[in-house]
Amino acid sequence: ERGLAVRDLVVRYEGAGKTATTAVAGVDLDVAVGEILALLGPSGSGKSSLLRAVAGLEPVAAGSVSWDGRDVTNVPVHRRGFGLMFQEGQLFPHRSVAGNIAYGLAMSGVPRAVRARRVAELLELVGLEGYGPRAVSTLSGGQAQRVALARSLAPEPKLLLLDEPLSALDRGLRDRLTAELHDILRRTGTTALYVTHDHDEAFTVADRVAVMIDGHLAQVDEPARLWRVP
Ligand code: ADP
Ligand code: ADP
């Protein structure tokens, strides 16, 4: 059993007093190695809670998260070997572009020459050759997200978790970057779980789409086979 297996997962937020929200209400989900799965649904449907629970950022009330058959439900975030990419504001503002991309590699003791090679390779992958020495503050929103993608791919994560990575960008740029992101994930063979509220984005980026409504998965299928809203 390879890849990600989520079983009967429940995420609950205890409110003040007796109000509690069940954000994820018993979800089963599999992502095969090399697959890109989009989690699509309206705001508040529980997508982010599910992704955060898979990452280990949110405690689980019930159920399990496994990778390659190993239960990682109680494994801390940094030991899961998963990568994360968020909407915005994730780069270190006082480091260069290269410094941002290389940060995790430096932390895990990858030698300087190897880091430099890897950084150059990743900059090329995201279409930012030569941007290594630049200050992060000089980047456009789209460029900053390319750098964030390069950084999250740097350690070659087993699974990349993306939470609305392009939602802060304007429509035209978002469309172009969605196609590019798909291409980059494919070329690197990255297994990905991609949260979005945008149909077009989900259909462009993913091999399969899981539609989430009120904490449940309403359907999981290839884009061409999903029910269409008339
Ligand atoms: P989505 O990502 O689909 O927008 P979320 O997972 O963010 O959905 O939210 C699902 C539900 O959980 C919503 O009702 C939301 O208000 C609630 N929720 C999310 N985060 C918290 C939190 N930290 N504390 C309390 N309730 C939360
Ligand atoms: P910072 O000082 O911003 O933390 P550094 O400039 O020290 O970052 O670079 C961090 C890493 O990136 C190092 O491993 C270095 O080898 C690599 N690096 C630095 N500049 C470049 C560049 N222009 N192209 C590719 N790699 C670079």
TrEMBL record:
The keyword Cell membrane applies. Keywords: ATP-binding, Cell membrane, Ion transport, Iron, Iron transport, Membrane, Nucleotide-binding, Transport. GO terms for molecular function: ABC-type ferric iron transporter activity; ABC-type quaternary ammonium compound transporting activity; ATP binding; ATP hydrolysis activity. Coiled coil: none annotated. It is an enzyme of class 7 (translocase). Transmembrane segments: none annotated. One of its GO terms (cellular component) is membrane. The keyword Transport applies. Its EC number is 7.6.2.9. Residues 4-230 form the ABC transporter domain. This is ABC-type quaternary amine transporter. It comes from Georgenia soli. The chain holds residues 4 to 233 of 383 of the full protein.
